[in-house]
Fold this protein.
Amino acid sequence: MTQISYARKGEITPEMRAVAKQEGLSPEIIAKGVANGEIVITCNSKYSLKHPCGIGKGLRTKINANIGSSTDCCDIKLEKKKAQVAREAGADTIMDLSTGGDLRKFRKVIQETFAGPIGTVPIYQIATETVKSKGGIVFMTSNDIFKVIEEQAKDGVDFITVHCGVTREVFDRLCAQKRIMDIVSRGAAFLITWMLANKKENPLYEHFDRLLDIAYKYDVILSLGDGFRPGAIGDATDRAQIQELLILGELKERANKRGVQVMIEGPGHVPLNEVAMNIQLEKKICQGAPFYVLGPIVTDIAPGYDEITSAIGGAIAASAGADFLCYVTPAEHGGLPNIDEVRRGIIASKIAAHAGDIVKGIKGAKERDNELSKARKKLDWDRQTKLAIDPEILKKFRSERKPKMSEVCTMCGDYCAIKIVEDAIKKHK
Amino acid sequence: MTQISYARKGEITPEMRAVAKQEGLSPEIIAKGVANGEIVITCNSKYSLKHPCGIGKGLRTKINANIGSSTDCCDIKLEKKKAQVAREAGADTIMDLSTGGDLRKFRKVIQETFAGPIGTVPIYQIATETVKSKGGIVFMTSNDIFKVIEEQAKDGVDFITVHCGVTREVFDRLCAQKRIMDIVSRGAAFLITWMLANKKENPLYEHFDRLLDIAYKYDVILSLGDGFRPGAIGDATDRAQIQELLILGELKERANKRGVQVMIEGPGHVPLNEVAMNIQLEKKICQGAPFYVLGPIVTDIAPGYDEITSAIGGAIAASAGADFLCYVTPAEHGGLPNIDEVRRGIIASKIAAHAGDIVKGIKGAKERDNELSKARKKLDWDRQTKLAIDPEILKKFRSERKPKMSEVCTMCGDYCAIKIVEDAIKKHK
């Protein structure tokens, strides 16, 4: 039994109660959202009660950090450290996107270290193992695919990105139009390579029921990947992207009916004025399914600062109803991120999520801003530090830049507006 | 004669032609905007043709960097270096907000080093000199105020922030409501202190015509300050803020009639969903006057990362029609920024402005993204570097993180989606 199948029978599970408690909402609201497919709960049956995390309508916007090796950068200690940093910096979930080294080993180390909900893109393991064992992605079989998916599910992965919408139909539509970047999704790249060489349909689409069986068995959330996401703002909201979304909407319905939890993944590179409409469209086409967006980044010209370009898009997306933000690090479009970049990516994404939560009216969001501002007004630095998204940096500022008057800061020094106004009003009274 | 007085007589000045050339627009469009008060051109008569910069409707969104000393941090070499960095990183203008040390000396060094349009807040010099010479802000006179303003105008300052809307009326309205942060503007704090102690109206409001005479004589742009800007998102868009805006709208009309160029300054701390409406409101109330926003920052809880909170607000503001973004550095709310923080603030602000320019349809904005993405598709790293907002950081990534295959990056290594898809499509054809 899965969370959605319990919910649809009107049963409230311990996981739903746990999520309700975390969010300060009633278990009934959570159960209703899960039943409708508007909320998912990470709870692989192996780990169900360890770290249930609710993602969806009415809940705090969650953020994910992508970590993992590549063929060029394959250091298990480094990835373990990234998982630690993700935990400390407050990522709600992580995805292990490793493609270099012993992938199962990387996954286990990352999973144990983070000790929270974990996602993967199984096609990475399938493709890289096929390359090693058979000499090329094109030799992959359907059985290879589902074997690895089941292995990962058994290992306790909570959500998996599956590019089920990468179909011949969408690919033909892509070829019939012009795009700047074509396909930028690694998962889609693997599948398209296989599909073209074998002249076959995507097995994840063709054998979707087999995928549903596995997902149901372990209550793994299917995160329906956007293989045709725009990789340039000039490609945003085009026919290929929206065609894939339509297919994901159909699959979402099938999955929910079968008792399988589903999220939808979204773009990508999107100009600022198309972000909100992309959220609206997903919510309509996919019947309110939780929307998991990568960024989105609102300009292509800032490699090295994509934690900022994605915080802009992410904040707008969250405020428009996106439920789950995938962080983007400063290193995106330049290389695999280091520890500090992982940390910066998480903080930027948390800022975006919180800015959105203020607009969504999430319980406690605006209140935290007000509390911090009250502390700021009182020049109470300890309390400001406690309430800040990154307490360490404020402590660092305070110790590095000591003002002569301890209550102010070095920005205005003697001429602190807060202090001056307070004094003036006091005298006036 | 000033730019606006020429424009209203139908004359096109060399400064207007220079701005038209920079923006790729016709001189007639610029002249029309200047005549309407929808565009301003920085052109203190002393420096008029050295660095005219157009700010307003239809033009590229400009960004300003605040630098300058405080009583706690008063190092002229450091501020000189910040002015250099501002120039190199591409700030369109700088404001010298010094309040510590020999202010005139700081201003001259900063002005000469930046060698571009410069703004100031003259009340800082007036207040700090009065404290030194007379023992308190409350002993300041109207003559002191206008003497310093004229001195700065004569020294070639292009725009000055003048808190003319800090009136008794607005202050009373502020006191009649509840605010978390009251007043966070240093200029307003000085003026209110003086007004309460002396039981008088703000001289910058009462003797506005005297201010106009000076501004007209040197063609200094009046940047009408928002002394009652919200300093907490909980205070945003309240009656005090909007009352001040109404007064600024009246003053803008008077100034334009007198042949004086005007910008309006805007908040501050604003929740994401109130940013666009604040821009719309300013444009209505102030008859399309160029809007110069500080940030805005969309959450209070991220001290240490306010380049990000303000990039979010700034991007939305720019896309909604804000013309001029004042950067916010990571150090805001923690101390005076160092060199690196000034640089980060400028880049974040440039990202926000550019994201807005894509939406505004500014000539060349979206095209630059497309060019960079085309280079990315071709895995042409040199061209990506050339087109990036910060070429240095991409160079650094490339040299620090060398992939085995030189054309890809270490993020995906052998499994670069761009490369895989290209190969697959080539074989397919």
